[in-house]
Amino acid sequence: MKKVLVLIFTVFFMGLLLTGCSSENKSLTMVWYPNESGEDLKAAREEIGKVIEEATSKKVEHKLTTDYVIAIEAIASGNADIAFLGAQGYIEAHKKNQKVLPLVVNSGSSGTLEDAVYYSWLNVKKGNENQYKSGSQYAIDNIQGKRFSFVSSSSTSGFKVPSAGIVSYFSKKDAWKDLKQEELTEGGKNKFFSEVLFGGSHQGSAVNLLTDKADVAAFCDTCVANYVELAAGTPNRPGAVYRVKQDAVEPFDKVRGEEFVAISVTPVLNAPFAYNSETVNQETMEALRKALVGDDVANNEQIFVPKESDFKGLFAKGQRFVEVTDDWFNPIRELSN
Questions:
Q1: 315: which residues sit within 8 A by CB, 6+ positions away?
Q2: 297-323, pLDDT tens digit by residue?
Q3: Relative to the CA of 295, which of 159, 209, 223, 232 has its CA 20 to 30 Å away?
Q4: Which of 269, 293, 317 corresponds to the end of one domain?
Q5: Interval 219-252: pLDDT, tens
Q6: Are residues 265 and 138 in the same domain?
Q7: CATH code of the domain covering residue 218
Q8: Residue 134: count of CB within 10 angstroms of its CB
Q9: pTM
Q10: What are the pLDDT digits (tens) for 145-162?
């Protein structure tokens, strides 16, 4: 009798275990940075979610965040299966858990990795730009001592790239020859900056500048593209003037019409979609990657949005998703060495 009971309980608990395992794999959690977590980008997130659902036959649950660290920790810990991260965020997640791997990035207009870049800007309010010139050219000499806004210490284009550039430039001067990136995170007396702010998102850093909380701010072109328009100059070149659109939504709705000038522009490796290979099996990953790099997605105008469209998306028509490997991100890793 005891043997029969043991057998019954064993079968019962094995059934529970198998049921739990099968239900665990019915959905995929996708985590987004604060930059892409706004209500205005809900339709863009959901369109990408639809592609994932159709490719994998799994329901996608979107996890929105207010902090880069939350998104990075979610994918590294396995609380999220897929994440859209900047290069630096991916590197940090991979360092925490080497099972976190890149899936795809958006290409440049060539459709390849050759021009798969976006741009990190240092910006000042329109009217203040002449303070940051050396002769007829823009220079960053006078950012020292100013109030500065970064995005997050885990942001590639909103911290890692600009801080590396600042250190590289100023360490050639005797007064700052020992300057380190980590010293740029705090302002005050005898510090490089008089005050340092973190916007929490690229949009937040831009608003810090436009509301006069900061004199200079780092943020990128792609994360503010839905809210600003070129007012003068050449896009993504020093001296380009951008204006907040009259129909811009939060957090730009209080600064509509305000203008800023990019005084420094640096190309940055595009951001990857990454996955946790502990929670996403090989079959699912391959199905997902095949769908994302396919022509149907490349031609989806709610993912790769035409310039004339009113749809608020993440990527531009003419780009496409391309496969990428971990070593492609080494140039960003080297900024910390």
A1: 106, 303, 304, 305
A2: 999 999 999 999 999 999 999 999 999
A3: 223
A4: 269
A5: 999 999 999 999 999 999 999 999 999 999 999 9
A6: yes
A7: 3.40.190.10
A8: 10
A9: 0.88
A10: 999 999 999 999 999 999
Pairwise CA distance, residues 180 & 167, whole Å: 6
Q: How many domains does the chain divide into?
A: 2
Q: Is the peptide bond before 238 cis (omega within 30 degrees of 0)?
A: no
For residue 18, being part of any structural domain is answered with: no
Instruction: Give SS3 for 2.
Output: helix
326/75 Cα distance (integer angstroms):
16
**Alpha-carbon distances of 196 from 5, 160, 188, 214, 258, rounded to whole Å:** 67, 15, 8, 8, 22
> Is the model's pLDDT at 17 over the cut of 50?
no
Instruction: Please count the CA atoms within 13 angstroms of the CA of 89 that sit on its side-chain side.
Output: 30
The DSSP code for 157 is I
| Domain match, 126 and 240 both | yes
- Rounded Cα distance between 28 and 50, Å, is 12
The answer, yes or no, to whether residue 23 has pLDDT greater than 60, is no
Q: What is the DSSP string of 81-122?
A: SEEE--HHHHHHHHHH-TTEEEEEEE--TTSSSTT-EEEEEE
